[in-house]
Amino acid sequence: MTWATTILLLTISNIFMTFAWYGHLKTMNSKPLLLTIAVSWGIALFEYCFQVPANRIGYGYFTLPQLKIIQEVITLVVF
Questions:
Q1: Is 62 left (phi over 0), alpha (psi -120 to 50) or beta?
Q2: What tens digit of pLDDT does each residue of 46-74 get?
Q3: How far apart are CA 75 and CA 33, in angstroms?
Q4: Are 55 and 14 in contact (CB under 8 A)?
Q5: Residue 26 has pLDDT above 90, yes or no
Q6: Alpha-carbon distance 13 to 45, whole Å?
Q7: Beta-carbon contacts of residue 78 (< 8 Å; ≥ 6 apart)
């Protein structure tokens, strides 16, 4: 695995995160709040399934501050 794997996994993770955090505003606006929370948590689970391996793989190539900066840049690009 390479540093590119880290970038790819973080990008996928951010797509899930963005939808979990903000996608419900459009798609579940008329649904009960507790249902929306449960669905968002379910989506966030997939985010973590990509983010944790990305950080483990990336830590071999990047420092912790570098990983955080990469994560934030990807978040801004995806958003």
A1: beta
A2: 999 999 999 999 998 999 999 999 999 99
A3: 25
A4: no
A5: no
A6: 10
A7: 11, 14, 15, 18
- Measured between alpha carbons, how far is 45 from 56 in angstroms, rounded to an integer? 17
| Two structure tokens written together for 29 | 């606006």
Q: Which of 58, 62, 45, 64 is nearest to 10 (CA)?
A: 58
The rounded distance, in Å, linking the Cα atoms of 59 and 78 is 22
Residue (of 65, 71, 78, 69) closest to 6 by Cα position: 71
pTM, rounded to two decimals: 0.85
Region at 8 (left for phi over 0; alpha for psi -120 to 50; beta for the rest):
alpha
Which tokens is 72 given?
């934030």
**Residue matched to tokens 């968002």:** 40
Which structure tokens are listed for 28?
A: 């579940």
